[in-house]
C-alpha cells in the first residue's frame, strides 16, 4: 500500500490522497506499526491542509483518534473523535457522524 501511495504522491496526484493516506494508516495500525500509522495520518493531514479536499476529513479524524487510542493517548483520541463528529455534522455526513459517536461512546 505504501509504495502505491508514495508513487501517486510522486506523480503529483491530487485526487482523494487523503483517503489513500488514511487507508495506509489503517493498514499500519492493523499490523501494529503505530509509528508508521501516525506518520501516515500526519501525511494525510498535511495533504488535507494543502489541498482543501474536505470530503474525507471526518474519516481522517476518526483514524487519527484510533491511532492515538492504540498508542494510549486517550486525550488526543477523544479530541480527534470530537473533531470528526463536528466535521461530519457540518458536512451532514450522517453515517460518519454515527461512526464518530460510536468511537466516543466506546471510550
Q: Cα distance, first to last residue?
A: 29 Å
Mean pLDDT: 92
Radius of gyration: 13 Å
As residue ranges, the low-confidence spans are none
Helical stretch count?
6
SSE string, helices as H and strands as E: HHHHHH
Strands, count: 0
The main sheet comes to: none
What is the SS-derived class?
A: mainly alpha
Task: Give the % helix.
Answer: over 70%
β-sheet strand percentage:
under 5%
How would you describe this protein?
- This protein has 107 residues and is mostly helical.
- Helix content is 79%, strand content 0%.
- It is built from six helices and no strands.
- The protein has helices at residues 2-10, 17-30, 34-51, 57-70, 74-90, 94-106.
- Helix 2 (17-30) runs antiparallel to helix 3 and helix 2 packs parallel to helix 4 (57-70).
- The radius of gyration is 13 Å and the shape is globular.
Features:
107 residues, mainly alpha, globular
Gist of the model:
The chain is mainly α and 107 residues long.
